[in-house]
Every structure is written in C-alpha cells, then in structure tokens.
Amino acid sequence: MARVMLVTVLVLVGLASPASAAQEFRVLQLNLCHSGVNTSCYNGAATLQEADSVITAEQPHVLSLNEICANDLSRLAPAMGNGFSTFAPARRPDGGPVRCTNGDEYGNGLIFRSPATGTVFTGQYATQDGGNERRVYVCAEFADLVACSTHLSTTGDVAMSQCKEAIALLRGRAVAGRPTVLAGDFNLKYAPWFGPDVQDCNSSPFYRKGDGSVQHVFAANLQYARTEVTRMTTTDHPALQVVYSRP
C-alpha cells in the first residue's frame, strides 16, 4: 500500500509541475563527438541513445548540437517533438563539407521544440586557424527569438576572434530587444586568471553562463533562472542546460 501511495503522489506532482514552469525557457547544449574521427571520445550509437535520454529528461525548447553528423538531427528530432531543425556543415579549406567517417556531413545543428519555421542563416568566420576545418555558425531567426549554435577553433586567439565575431553578428538583434541565444563549444574557458578568457568576448546586452569548461550559452533579453550541468558517459563533454524565463 505504501508503494501505491508514493506513486500517486509523484504523479500528482508531475501533473502540477508544467503549470509552475510555464514561463521557463530552456536551452540545452550538447557536443556529441560523433564524427568517428576522434576515437578517444567516439562511442557510436550509444552517444545518440544517451543524448536522446538527456533531451527527454531535460525537455529543452532549443537544442544546440556540435560535432554531429547531418543525419543525427532526424535521430534526435522525436525527443524534441519533431520541431523545426537546421544543420550547417563545417567546411574544408577548399570549401567542401567536412564529413563524418560514415560519409555524412559533419558540423553543427539546431532543433527547436516549436514546429514554426525560422529563417536560417549560416556562415564561416573571417578568422580561421591552419587546420583542415573551417569553423562555422548556424542560426535560425523567428519573430520572437534568434538562436545560434557554433563550435570554435581549438587555437585560443582564433577562438576569441570567432567568439567576438559571433557576438557582433547578433548584437543588433539583441539591442533591438529580441530574445537571442548563442550556444556552443567555444573552446574557451571562463578563466580571468589565465587567458584567453571567454568573458572577454562578451558584449552588452549579452551575458554568459557555462559548464565550468568550454561550453557556454550567451543570452540577451531573457531572464536567467539557473544552470544545470549533467555528466555524460559517451562523449567528452557534459550536457549544459541554461534555464531562463521569457519576457
């Protein structure tokens, strides 16, 4: 009988929680290391299974994805309610797409819980390192939201230039009062005592929240509520969710 009563209480709490959290707006950032190239953190299908579980548990409104293969979007979309999604491949120096070991294009993606269609804009950063991957951003713009995902260079000063370029790209929209988020793996840490410091690329009205390492979400015109960091076992980065409330 005690077990039945406990289950009943949990169900009732679950029914009440959506109303109390109705104003929440959640942005989830995942770097899945799913290209197959970096074998030290590649775990194949298990990574998508774990990502699916995290998405289902966290129920984000916006999902930012790095180091994924293009077809991963359709695999993860059901956990996001099959909302609007978009993908941008990283580029080789010759302009062609970087590819996963399975042949899919490799890059960054966004999935939204809303089915509304956004205006997509993507691009390469003006400053790049000497490697074989040209870093890119992918964004979707809606009437009431602008959201972007990016994955920056592993060279610190280059990553800083790219971060500043991304903020500058979005700043006009943010200054105009649009809720705006920029999420990703910036390969920069919040380290005021040991640079380069990711905070140095910030510009008002944006503010930044991170996972204690290289993943961050910059936001403007959203009220901060809390940061949630969840350990993941099938990739080399935790899940970073930043919770806001909408104006």
From TrEMBL:
GO molecular function: endonuclease activity; exonuclease activity
Organism: Nonomuraea phyllanthi
One Pfam family, short name: Exo_endo_phos
Record keywords, A-Z: Endonuclease, Exonuclease, Hydrolase, Nuclease
Protein name: Endonuclease/exonuclease/phosphatase family protein
Family matches, as SUPFAM superfamilies: DNase I-like
Endonuclease/exonuclease/phosphatase domain segment(s): 49-212
Coiled-coil ranges per UniProt: none
